Each structure stands twice: as C-alpha cells, then as structure tokens.
Amino acid sequence: MKIVLLSLLFVITLWADAHIFVYHRFGDSRHPSTDTTKQELIKEFQYFKDFGYKVIPLEKLVNAIKDKETIQDNWVVLTIDDNFKSFYDNGLEIFKKFNYPFSLFVYVEASEKRYPDYLTWQQLREISKYGSLEFHSYAHPHLTNMSDQSIKDDFSKGLKIFKKNLHVRPKYYTYPYGEYDKRVEKIAKSFGFDAIINQNMGAVGQKSDLFDLDRSALVGKTNLKYLLKFKYLDAIWLEPLVYPKNGVLKSIHVKTKERAFGASIYVSKHGWQKAKVNDGNIDKTVNLKLLKKRNRVIISINDKISTKLLMKDN
C-alpha cells in the first residue's frame, strides 16, 4: 500500500502546479458547448478524489501566492461563471455531496432584472452558504469594445447592486467572455480586487500574476487528465503584446529560464508548430494571419505553458 501511495504522489508531482477550472451550465442539454452533464461532473469530481487532488477555496490559492508560500501540485480550484439557474437545480447538490468549495461569479444584471434562465438574489444568498460569490460584471459586455468610462460605469453599477443584494463586496473578478487587454486589465485592477482570473488554459504557480491567473474551461467534452498535466511556465512576452494593426502576427519572441532546446507554439486556428529555444530565448518568425477576434498564442515547454490573448478591437 505504501508503494502505491508513494507512486501516486510521485505522478501527481510530475503533472502540474495548481489548477483553476471554470464551469458554466449544468445538466442543460440546450447549450452543449457550455454545459457539463451531471454524470460528467460526478466523473470529474470522483477523478479528483481518486487521484489525490485537493479542491481548495480560491482564497487559499490567492493567499498562498500573496504570501509566497508553496503552491501544492494537487491543488484544484473550482469556479462557475454566469449565475445560471442550472447550477442551483443540477450542480449544487453534487458540489455539496463531495464537499467541494467553489466561487461563483455573478452576472449582476441577469439576477437584478430576473432573467428567466438565471438565479434570483435569494437563491444566490442560499448558495453563499456553500461557496463564495464574486463579480463577473453588471451587463456582461464585450469590454475591449467599450470606452474607459463605459467600462468603469459597468463596474461601479454592478458592484453597487451586488453589495446591496448580497451584503458583501466581492474579492475576485473574471472577464465576460474571457476577453481583455492591458487597458481593460488596468481599469479592472483599479477597483481593488484581490485577484483577477482569465480564461486562458494553463496552471498557477508561485510566480503567477495575481491579476492574470490562468483558468481552464471544463465544459462540453473535456479531457481532464490532459488539462491537469500542464504546469505554469514563467515567461516574459516581448512579442506579441497587442493585436497587430494589420492582423498579421509576424513573430513570437518570449524569454524564459526553462532549460530546453525546443518548444511548441500554438496560434488560434493555425495549430501547433515547433520552435527552437536558444539560451532561454524563443524568437520565431511566423507571418500568420489572425483569423479570430479573440486569438490565443501559447508557448509550451516540457508541459509548461504560457498564454497571450490578442483581442481585435472593433
């Protein structure tokens, strides 16, 4: 038995740093691309349990990064975006059964105006007994298309209504649609959150930016084992930093202390390609036309990854 346990711990250590995951809908077959069936949720939760993963509150991970404490390789944080009523109807009972903490990010307008597919304020207050409630904007807008003042107005209005109805001020924030850039990030940080979470596939390590924490989606058909193998790559992005004006990504230049001779590069809609690593430098000419409004560029070295999101403004 001791040998089995030691082997299990060794495997987990090799897999990854801490991971943050996001869910949306639960047991709602009308929206398969953002839904997690009850059967799939139970299967994922059982996987965490069987393989020694520890589901912790988001606050514990954030505090560990703040205090420069060791990030455990088996830590998992579960988050839920968009306060759909399917969580109350189909998901909450399973979270309670496994005693797994969670953070639910509230789309304020949906509850305030009583949109039929969303949770009421009373239901949210009941849910807060089992997990934390956090902020996901007032109107769930495409922030990169908005003026600075419009973005600030959405934050101010949403936070005021949130506090009025839930009697707490949220500590954490997630971007609607996972869309952001440096301008949006700067405004979001000005509202005093303890951490901001993106929706870029990856992991969280001791050097992760508290205001740009990576988070992988568990919706539709997902390969949990694949996502858990990723580790945090400490990397400095030199190019690209913003969406190129002509829509053509000419080159990718990243610096890292990771020891390797080769890396893999991913660009949305273009797939993966190989790149050389020279003394910690990845400097590759690609000349790729970006094909989406929201493009992800990923660097992968030894199962460690770092992601850059490039948003095209309207």
Largest sheet: 6 strands, parallel
Q: How many helical elements?
A: 9
CATH superfamily of the largest domain: Glycoside hydrolase/deacetylase
Domains counted in the coordinates: how many? 2
Low-confidence stretches: 1-16
Structural class: alpha/beta
Shape: globular
CATH top level label of the largest domain: Alpha Beta
Number of strands: 18
Which percent range fits the helix content? 25-40%
Keywords, separated by commas or semicolons:
9 helices; 314 residues; 2 domains; Immunoglobulin-like; five-stranded mixed beta sheet; TIM Barrel; globular; alpha/beta; six-stranded parallel beta sheet; disordered N terminus; 28% strand; 18 strands
Write the layout of secondary structure elements.
Elements lengths: L1 H14 L3 E5 L1 E2 L8 E2 L1 H13 L3 E2 L2 H9 L8 E7 L3 H14 L4 E4 L1 H5 L8 H7 L4 E4 L12 H19 L5 E3 L7 H8 L5 E3 L18 E2 L6 H5 L2 E2 L2 E5 L8 E9 L5 E6 L3 E6 L4 E9 L4 E8 L2 E8 L3
Parallel strand pairs: 1-5, 1-10, 2-3, 4-5, 5-6, 6-7, 8-9, 11-18
Antiparallel strand pairs: 12-13, 13-16, 14-15, 14-17, 17-18
Helix pairs in contact: 2-4, 7-8
